[in-house]
Design brief:
Elements: E1 12-24, H1 26-36, H2 38-43, H3 49-65, E2 70-75, E3 78-83, H4 91-113, E4 129-144, E5 147-151, H5 153-160, H6 166-170, E6 175-179, H7 180-186, E7 194-200, E8 203-212
Parallel strand pairs: 4-6
Antiparallel strand pairs: 1-3, 1-4, 2-3, 4-5, 6-8, 7-8
Length: 214
Amino acid sequence: MVTMIPPNGRGSRSSGTLLLADISGYTSFLNGVAEAHRALIIDADEPPAAYAAISGLLDATLAALEPTFRLVKFEGDAVFTIADGNLPRGEAVLDCVRACYDAFREQLGLAESQWTCTCDGCIRIRGLDLKFVLHHGEYVAHRIAGREELAGPDVIVAHRLLKNHARDLVGDRPYALLSDATVEALDVPLEGMLAGVETYDDLPPLRVRVLALA
């Protein structure tokens, strides 16, 4: 017999700026470490230092975004955050992103300076970098298993934008991609940004702006 759980309310509707900070090169790095140190992963009491390095990078990323953005959840190689109260505006939006990127690079430099293994897997730590996606819109906050979750079409859009064509505009560089909805809602200056359009099968075309961070 299946026990039915009664509904706990419809949640609350609000609007804000969704920001995802995603570590590029994450999968290649951890897969390389796993391949190079398979015996260590299986037999050692503690996991390889690569996992601690990733944790440090995610912690530094979140710390730099707070308190402007608050954590929704960690999503593997990404930090999912939202600004839904005193929203940043204008240049302050880009200042927050740049400060976060600088904190990430500083933490990465620290990790590299303490790295001792130079195998083909571990050396991939040098290929780690950070990219940002920002999208402004509405969402529904509700609780699942005691944790806040965000849902709604704009939450889906923000995550879809992680798969984009920003590299076609800025090349192999870290970047921040902002939907036009974000630019308009927060009065973000367009100087230095390149315009693009992202298309997905089940969404209308999304106009975006891309800023190279290095």
